[in-house]
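Why does residue order matter? Because the sequence determines the fold. Keep that principle in mind as you read this record.
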Amino acid sequence: MEDKNNINSNIEKTEELISKLSLENNTNVVESYDPLITLKYPKINLSSSSDISNLLGKRVELNEKTAKIKYVGPLKHKKEYKENEIWLGLEWEDKTRGKHNGTVEGFEYFKTSDGENSGSLVKMTKVNIGQTFKGALGYKYNFYEEEGNDYHKDVDKALEKDNFITTDKKIINIELVGKEKAAKKFSEFEYMPCIDLNYSYINSLGNDLSNILPRLKELSLTRTLLTKWSEFLDILIQFKNLTLLNFSENILIFDDKFDDEINKFEKGEYKLHLNTLVLNKCNLDTYHLIKLSPVFLYLDYLYLKGNRINPDTYDKSENKKFIEENISNIEKNTSNLKYLSLEQNKINSFFFGYKIFKSPKLKYINLNQNLISDLIPEENNEENQKLLELFKKSMEHILLDYNMFKKEDYTKIMVDLETMELKDIDILNNGFIDKIGVEKVKIEMIGRNPQLKILNNTTITKIMRRDAEKQYLIDCVKEYINSLGNKSFDKFIFEKYMKKTHKQYFNLRKKFFDPLDDYENLTKKNNQNTMKSNMVEIVLEYEGKTINRKFPKSTIFTNLKNLCVRLFKIDGDVMIHFYLKNGDKEELIEDETVTLQSLNLPNGQIILIKK
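Structure:
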């Protein structure tokens, strides 16, 4: 069984490939000569003498944005009408890019597909129509044989000096040595297992590619100018040994050839080794997934970030009948899937993605940056129960950053996550956490989930778990007492409440102590409203010197460290650590983000400070 380390290794490798030439990542090039990072492919423009008869429907590039040609001809709305001056009507794939819906000053040149202002009129000579696969391949990798153009001068400069890439965390030095050896290696395509042609704006594939790249296993083709999904299938057919394909930012259409070829995939006539497929930002919805699903059969990893796979497009699709009749094909063809990314799909229902895929092997799902505000549906119907049981059998890791969880739904969110029995949860950057507090959420998540190993990308240590579970045990009782108001404490009702809301309370009480030993007397004497002091007295000890101080229970050890440096006049460059002293035992505080309260420290607790 593949553990999380293996899954993460594959995810990191794939995301590194995805982001290598991404225009949205945090990598900036300081030195401008690294040919594998800053390469700008030659732009091939249309001229007035070009054949314009087959331009409609083609994809083109302008200023690093792609669009589809919807009109070819002169501008009729201009005062100076020039019949021989050819303009192109473009519908931008980035909908924020356009200026109109295809109609200008009463003249309708074309109609944008959604009626939005995503259209523009540009001179024909401005757009880039792209190049062939072989052309892009030769230009990037086969520079050993050509020395005449500016690009190869840049390569010479790159090979003569060090290059630096700066990221948001560090600066990486890249030293290129052995110019002739490196260049020769790049020219020997038959030995190359990995090819990166991101942003090369390939407009056609050609034939016999497998003979040129017989050992190709990893291929990255972000943002091509291909137009049909049959061309995507052609890549898989020509490169049967591919294990990883990044085909992001390609918005294509289905054609008759696709239907013919996909049937062969479905019948098993084409055997694939494809393990990882990246289709980020391809404008896919559930209809596209069903049509493409036969190529998913052998996948372990599927990336679908930034598409339109959500309940809204599902319910309002013009292909709704086809979807309902064939939705089971996705489940059938993703039976081996282990990792699924549905990030940035505007999903508002947690179980929507899981309902579509239902892979019995799916362990890891990325739902970051969606619109989810609820987890397990309140409708306890048979379908939801089956989904939940299937989910609990396989699912271990969930990413839920940047969603729409609200403070008022906090208890239900906590109970739902407990019910899911996950090993790894990432739920930071949600509004309710800012209002509830990161520390409280951490304590409750750990306390409720004994199987949880990783929370918000932090491994839960034994000490962290013990401290969080003790504090959660106490907090459960505090929560109930605070909810009583003027009502008297009833132990039977209290235990009934705990069984419903805090199932782990009884296990933790057996494991540690009964908080009611302290709180029952408190509720009787103070009519359920008096709280213990928010201060705790601590004895700080450093190299034989002691200082007694009262601190708020909310104080974290990181802040306490700064105070101790001043109190004991410790050199600021010296690394110090805290130990709890109980008799002859000394216990290291490993997680310095915990509060004094979370450790349930009594008044007079001795804390040792050591270098």
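The longest helix spans residues 462-484.
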